[in-house]
Amino acid sequence: MDPVRNPYAPGAGQRPPELAGRDRELEAFDVVLERLARGRPERSVVLTGLRGVGKTVLLGALRSAAVRRGWGTGKLEARPDQPLRRPLAAALHQAVRELSGRNPDEAAEVLGVVKAFALRASSEPAAATTGSRTRTAPKMRDRWQPGIDVPAAVGRADSGDVEIDLVELLTDVAGLAASAGRGIAICIDEMQDLGAEDVSALCAACHELSQQGLPLLVVGAGLPHLPAVLSASKSYSERLFRYVRVDALEREQADRALRSPAQEEEADFTPEALDALFAATDGYPYFVQAYGKAVWDVAPTSPVTAEDVAVAAPQAEAELAVGFFGSRYERATPAEREYMRAMADLGEQAGDGAVGTAEVATLLGRKPQSLSPARDALLKKGLVWSAERGRIAFTVPHFGRYLRRHAGE
């Protein structure tokens, strides 16, 4: 079939033509927005799930829902090597600009607070004698400017203590939104990569704003262990956020994700082709898009048949092996790869679910303590996650299958 008309989109965070299986989440978010608009209390939202289940896509859809209601919105992607101040300031700069038309003078004042927050940095060198951390006077970073063309505020969100500053900043931003009869939605992708200090400050700020009833909503997305990260920071985070698990699509939803875009292009799939595609993808949205694109390109005519799927499968698997699996595998050291291969071997009997860390050590003939550095590094790189103490699983669906197929390469 015509590759130019291929409707499938297997890109990182790229919205598919048919956002199947997420209607319930979108409807629930509309309720949250409406309640906040009416001054009702609501919790911020955290999306969790494995890689490739569409968290980033859903995060974008939720942001779009807020935009349609006239809210100010901003989005950032957390990185383990970057503090929260600058990316959050950039996101809030955009959100405030979206609201500035209703009250430009107040918006200018709030932008001054955003700028002060962005420019303030704190230095906490380790004490030489005791090993404790000693806070020193905050400094201004003169070489970097956040692109906000108003003077930085003085005495607001500029103390250098990120928790104090964040509470003040978000209170002012949310106050602007309330004055405009709107709200603010801050979307944070890869939220598990925030530093511990920033996580604690964000939880404290959300807690304070919820008590004040201000219309500001944090919408986070991250790996399955994100709730544990938040809980370790603030015990009340379990009640502060509404956790939404984003999982693979059910059969009917996966079929809709394939058929609806095809039907828009006057094409379709046979039932046998859909059977084969669901068996290959397990309903994971990224895989659905990857296989859908490959099958469309090899199928000579509509409807797509099971034979077309069989021909296209090696091509889809090869592309996933390079772009989805291989790029992550290459980030691992030899010791980390050995650990992951052992996980994959154990997972073959466990249905590629979580495996015991003690079992990994036994398989490798090593003491569990000696494998801790490799395990901890894989956790930090986001390649594995710990569902419970003593058990570990891949964050990437089908990763164990990939490692078994490419063993020894």
From TrEMBL:
Orc1-like AAA ATPase domain location = 18-219
- InterPro entries according to UniProt: AAA_16, P-loop_NTPase
Looking at the record, which segments are called Disordered?
Answer: 1-21
Domain of life of the source: Bacteria
Q: Which SUPFAM superfamilies match?
A: P-loop containing nucleoside triphosphate hydrolases (SSF52540)
**Pfam families assigned:** AAA_16
Q: Which PANTHER family match?
A: ATPASE DOMAIN-CONTAINING PROTEIN, DNA-BINDING PROTEIN-RELATED
Q: What is this protein called?
A: AAA ATPase-like protein
